[in-house]
Amino acid sequence: MVRNDDLLKGVAIGIGVAILVPVAIAALAPALKPLARSAMKAGIRVYEQGREALEGVGEAIDDIVAEVEEEMVDAREAAEQVMDTAEAVEEVAAGARVADD
After folding, report:
1. Which tens digit of pLDDT belongs to each residue from 12-25?
2. How far apart are CA 39 and CA 47, in angstroms?
3. Which of 9-13, 34-38, 54-58, 91-95 has the highest mean predicted lDDT (pLDDT)?
4. Residue 64, CB half-sphere, CA atoms under 13 Å: how many?
5. 64-98: per-residue pLDDT in tens?
6. CA atoms within 13 A on the CB side of 11
7. Region for 17 from its dihedrals, namely left if φ exceeds 0, alpha if ψ lies in -120 to 50, beta otherwise
8. CA distances to 6, 25, 59, 68, 71 from 65, in Å
9. Chain mean position to CA 37
10. Which of 12-45 are b and which e, b meaning 16 or more Cβ less than 10 Å from the residue's Cβ?
11. Which span out of 19-23, 32-36, 43-47 was modeled with the highest average pLDDT?
């Protein structure tokens, strides 16, 4: 069981903390305000640098995607040219067979 002395100590500590914390905060506020401002400035700088870095990564990815799409278009055009050439060769060969007959 909890003794009355322990209970009284706990209540006294709780009341003391409840009284001293606001007093300590009020006393330390002038000193903590510049620290808080510095921390906010540092956080904003880190955020901006991170955003710029992500923009750079996004631009690099966009460039790679554009290059890949261009390569795919070039490959498709080359395949179409090969098919056109193959069809022309077949037509010439068919015409030569007709002429031979």
Report:
1. 899 989 999 888 88
2. 12
3. 54-58
4. 6
5. 999 999 999 999 999 999 998 988 888 888 777 76
6. 7
7. alpha
8. 71, 55, 10, 5, 10
9. 27
10. eeeeeeeeeeeeeeeeeeeeeeeeeeeeeeeeee
11. 43-47
Residue identified by tokens 């690099």 is: 60
Q: In the structure encoding, which two tokens stand for residue 37, read together?
A: 């401002």
**C-alpha span between 96 and 99 (Å, rounded):** 5
Residue type for position 53? A
- What tokens were used for 91? 């037509």
Structure tokens at 36: 């808080």
Distance CA 45, CA 48 (A): 5
- Taking the chain, what is the end-to-end CA distance rounded to the nearest angstrom? 118
How far apart, in whole angstroms, are the C-alpha atoms of residue 51 and residue 76? 37
Cα–Cα distance measured from residue 2 to residue 75, given in angstroms and rounded to the nearest whole number = 84
